[in-house]
Amino acid sequence: MHKLTFLLLILSFAIVNAKDSNYPSKFSVITYTVGNYGLNSMGEPWRSNNSLRNDAADSLVSSFENNITTYYPGTRFGTPKKYKDAAVTRSRFTSNESNNYNFVYYSGHGNVNRITMYPDQERVYNTDKRFGGKTYWVMIKSCLVFRNGEADQDPWFNGVHSILGYSSLSYTHADQVQIKVRCGINGLAYCTRTQTRSTVFVERDFATNWIKEKQTILDAYINAVYKWSFEAFGFGIEPKIVYRYGYVDGKFFDPWEEKFESSIQKPVFRNAGEYTGIGSRWCTMGTPEYE
Amino acid sequence: MKKIYFLALGALLSISHAQLIVSEKIYQQMDAREKPRALMKSQNAISQDSYIYTVAGSRDFKSGKNFQVKKIDNFHRFTVSKKNRKNRSIASEDEMRVRAMDDIKAVLPKDVADSCAITSVGYEYEQRDSNKPRVVGSMVMAHRKLDGIPVRGSSYVLMSYDSTGNLSYMDVQWDKYNKVPANSTMEKTKRNKIHREEFSELVESISQHLKKNELRGSLDNSIQTLVSFENENGEIVLYPSVTFIGQYSSNDSDESIPMTFDIPTDASLTPNNRAIVSK
Question: Do A184 and B270 touch (CB under 8 A)?
Fold first, then answer.
């Protein structure tokens, strides 16, 4: 009888955990953010600065860590690597170091097919960097990198499943001017506006949606951008995901719908002939700007 | 090359204040609010009660026949059942607005649905290889109105429609408010004067901020709203307000970033200490 009870317990334990058996055994993230571009070779400020870009990386990493350690305790969360400002150089970004991390995040200025490093005029083009190795997902928080009708997305791919970015201008912003107004009896007291809004919540909510709430990577991203760029500030914007699609181990794989809990733990579609085609999805919110 | 900030007043009809241009339209709207058209002799003056709205927590929602509800942080996610789906496609913006309101009424309690106003419709596209993009989904946003006035607080409804044209999920953040009769403690002329003073201080404050950050901007329009403020007692209250709408950009760029600011029209309203209805 005891043996039977023991076997039943083992069986029920196995059934309970079978649902979670496809989740990643480990997860690591590396971030590159340029909040301060410093001065150009002529000693002049050459790009606008915004320290929120660095805050956004912190928000993403923190949310990843909180959600994974809480809801996927069986997933080992690797020590994150964060590069900021002067450490974000072209040579560093294009090196193979990022291949050792599952999720790569960049925030800084950008344009069609390129992102902007530190210092003056250092840029990384789509033909300079191919995401692969252990990198399965990338998020590029920059303007226009995947602009519809102009960008060439495919050179970025060497095994990465999908890259999140923007077709339009993107924004890094928080409530800046706080005002107090007179209120109360005879207007002798002061009231303050209550909302706390920041686009760094995009990164925070993306990780929560994807990890904890088990949304597809695209739904997780669009939901977060909609709430904290469009709804909060009214920014017209076009978040976009780009990918190669095809068959992995005989099963059709469309990377935009990849979920964390059942994500593929290897590079995909590295070489010609291994995939069916290239694809993208985007959402148009409000009136996006492109100049 | 830096642009010239001070523009001729003539055709533009605007007032320049250092880095910030304030459209004359805003002052015209202010005048209209302060001096509404006089009643015709045949009309009786109607006594208008005043109210404020105090926050009474967050609205809770429960799962229903065709949807599951889950609380996530400060909002609820409604996941709609895929059973009994209608066979339809993603439609035009006007049709999506109608469809979204129908779905809101079908899913949300009546008092919540009656307070919703659709504010935007966005579309999701897919492109494969060199084929033309096709519409594969839609996102619809609704915001709140109380007594017909837009609310600028934290309440919203975000709806996601998939490629079948059916509602896939809906995120709802909804504050509960108590509608409280209130009295103004300042005479109207003084309230208007303070409102204009607050606006002038706002313009100065924005101008200083823009100048410090080498930006330029404009305030272009205003609308009447209910806006949440924290009063001196730490309470969150919705006051009748005016929301000023504008934009700003850096000196060497045409990229425009929206900006909004809120100033109460009567923050001297104080409750009669009798909540009459929760909303």
Answer: yes
B79 touches chain A (CB under 8 A): no
CB–CB of A173 and B257 under 8 A? yes
Chain B positions touching A48 (Cβ under 8 A) are 250
Measured CA to CA, the distance from residue B32 to residue B30 in angstroms comes to 5
What are B219's two structure tokens?
A: 């305030």
Q: Are A285 and A232 contacting, i.e. CB atoms less than 8 angstroms apart? A: no
Which amino acid is it at B32? A
ipTM of the complex as predicted = 0.89
Q: Which residue's structure tokens are 């344009």?
A: A111
- The residue of A47, A150, A166, A182 whose CB has the most chain B CBs within 10 angstroms, and thus the best one to mutate to test that interface, is A182
User: Strand A123-125 to strand B215-230: parallel, antiparallel, or no bridges (unpaired)?
Assistant: unpaired
CA-atom Rg of chain A in angstroms? 22
Per-residue pLDDT of B134-185, as tens digits, reads: 999 999 999 999 988 999 878 999 999 999 999 999 999 999 998 889 888 8
Summarize pLDDT for B70-91 with one digit per residue, the tens: 999 889 999 999 887 888 899 9
Q: Across the interface, which of B77, B120, B128 has its CB nearest the CB of A279?
A: B128
Rounded CA separation B116/A87 (Å): 48
Residues 6+ positions from A254 with CB-CB distance below 8 Å: A243, A245, A279
**What domains lie within chain A, and their CATH numbers?**
25-282 (3.40.50)
